[in-house]
Amino acid sequence: MTSSLLNQTLSQIAAAKPLDLLELVNTLDSGSLHTLFNELVAQASQENTNIEAAFYLHLAKDVKNQLSLNTPPAELLETLCNKLSVLQTGSTLSKYCSGKSFHINSNYQADVAMLGDSITEWAHWHELMPGIKVINRGISGDVTQGMLQRLDGVINAKPKQVFFMAGINDLSFGFAFDGVVSRYIEIVKTLQSQGIEVLVQSTLFVGERLSDLNPTIVKFNQTLARWCQDNDTTFIDINQVLSEGGLLMQQYTFDDLHLNGPAYLQWNKLITPYLSC
């Protein structure tokens, strides 16, 4: 975030004018929103500017007011964290269960299925692949174990091809490396046993904020590429167009993990020659 934009935003807040977050992010083409908001909050704190209303921080105080004023600080902190965790977990799992239920009960038939987590889910594949019957079988936050358990939602659509990307959530959660590889390969083999061509797409590198994950991602992709070479399975390195120097390029992300519009265009351009439909 540029210093002029930062100062302009803080001045707007200090003048008690409502902050339009959509208008703020509309001025950005890429870059980390996490960094942007952290800088805003830090600068506001230094200048004693009240930023609570703009970021809805008063919600935390509302929860605090529901608790006993005599609650010890440590217990209060734990309770607040637990409440936040319940809210986030409940919302995430509700969305996951809804998506899984729809996929499994859908009668839609497609030629191509895109399988993965949020990085896959957030693309509008039907617009990227006009004229092709494509289904999006990405679900935010999913791991390989979850994908294994919802493969019927892919197989039932009877696709000829499945473009598969997974692993970033498993690796970031610290799941055992060999177990992640084993489940990934089981997914590929299960789909192939149904006569489906599976195209394995490299797990994407992440940006600077999350860069500690990248050495493991390198190892993971190397392992997948070797398996694909030994088992007559196509491996597509998506990182070759979205990353530089082992990092997801800032021009393609807002949070060092998920992709923006130009990134999906590059991804789609790379895999288009592999489409057989």
What do you see in this structure?
This protein folds into 3 domains: 3-56, no CATH class; 65-105; 109-274, 3-Layer(aba) Sandwich (Rossmann fold). It has helices at 3-14, 21-25, 33-46, 52-55, 58-65, 73-105, 118-121, 125-128, 144-149, 152-155, 168-173, 177-192, 214-230, 239-242, 261-271; strands at 112-116, 134-138, 161-164, 197-201, 234-236, 243-244, 247-248. The chain is built from 15 helices and 7 strands. The chain is α/β, with parallel strands linked by helices. The longest helix is centred in the first third of the chain and has 33 residues, at 73-105.
Descriptive key words:
277 residues, alpha/beta, Rossmann fold, 3 domains, 5-stranded parallel beta sheet, two-stranded antiparallel ribbon, 15 helices
Summarize the structure.
With 277 residues, the protein is α/β, with parallel strands linked by helices.
The total count of helices amounts to: 15
Q: Please write the CATH class name of the largest domain.
A: Alpha Beta
- Provide the structure class: alpha/beta
Global geometry: globular
What is the residue-averaged pLDDT?
85
Sheet with most strands: strand arrangement: 2-1-3-4-5
Largest sheet: 5 strands, parallel
Are there runs of 5+ residues with pLDDT below 50, and where?
Answer: none
- The tally of beta strands, per DSSP, is 7
Helix and strand element order: HHHHHHEHHEHHEHHEHEHEEH
Secondary structure: helix percent:
40-55%
CATH topology of the largest domain: Rossmann fold
At CATH's second level, what is the architecture of the largest domain? 3-Layer(aba) Sandwich
- Total domains, how many? 3
Strand content: 5-15%
